[in-house]
Amino acid sequence: MNADQTDHAGHAGQTDRAGQTGQTGQTGRCGQSGRITRRQVVKLAAAAGLVAAGGLVAPALLREKPRAEVFVAKAADYGVDIAGILRRGLAELGLTPQEMAGRRVLLKPNLVEPHAAAGHINTHPLVVRAAAEAFLALGARSVVVAEGAGHRRDAYLVLEESGLADVLAQDRLPFFDLNSGPVQRVGNRGGWSRLGDLWLPQALSQADMVVSVAKMKTHHWAGATLSMKNLFGVMPGVVYGWPKNVLHFAGIEPSILDINATVRPDFAIVDGIVGMEGDGPIMGEPAAAGVLVMGRSAVAVDATCCRVMGIDPGRLGYLRQADGKLGTIEASRIEQRGEAPAGVRRDFALLDYVPAQQGIRLER
After folding, report:
1. What angle do CA 354, 358, 359 make, to 5 degrees?
2. CATH number for the 64-357 domain, one of 3.40.50.11440, 1.10.10.10, 1.10.260.40, 3.40.50.620?
3. What burial class does residue 205 get, using C-beta atoms within 10 Å of its C-beta: 0-12 exposed, 13-18 middle, 19+ buried?
4. What is the pTM of this model?
5. Residue 190 three-state SS
6. pLDDT tens-digit readout, 119-132
């Protein structure tokens, strides 16, 4: 794989630090009337919002027993002031205008399948919009949205059918297809799997802040999929296949750990307003947990989400292995801001015939 591979969509005229310019992306579908389409609006916003590439450098694994802060907020439905909730959470977690000033933020939602009517599958578009508004309100220089859908090669089909394309077009937020854009080789800072070096999208190194904007769901292979598992979507399909088969062959849990150790997301937001229970991440049923969970540590955020879902984080293999190395899952070392997890607990349905969901229920 050539690290200067150019994209096929969403990276029109991108320039990296070395001054190399990518090929112009595909044009979107044009209406017969000549009016600009939603797809074109998103792509034009992407072209206008390009930033200079930087080096993707991950810090070493933690050497001291970590602590973390996680904010949990009630959100009854998607009609509430989600941006206000997120702004309050950012303030509770100490994110200041001074820290955010001039920073380039990449939001990575969970877009799995093109099902507009099934809002429990993908991160809700209004949560993505609210996250963009919250970071921009704090002084972020720019916000881009990026995803590499796992099952479909046409990222823009998933984007449109999920309902997110409309929101991005209205807000003039750029979108990058991480499945087929330029990639670069990065050393694997985890070493849990046999993947070796990782090929990551250059869009990650162009951001000052990578934010995993995940969906709260059970998972038939990992037990639960939250902000850490959400980073499977940054792995380009042109390298790792569909649905990221190389990662599955290398082992889902060790791949989760290696990706997070290398990318090291700066922030995590989990959409638990309506999540998914049972046979997730696609075939499950809606689970109205009515919460938003966020924090600087993806590990601690996911551990808190598990407790909200009635799942013991210590019984999920990848969280147990991440504890003390990538973050903490210990309740005693997580300072809970906002709502206490026990107070908003909503036990998600688990399937007895799914090995990854057996024996993971959190005791009351």
Report:
1. 175
2. 3.40.50.11440
3. buried
4. 0.85
5. coil
6. 789 999 999 999 99
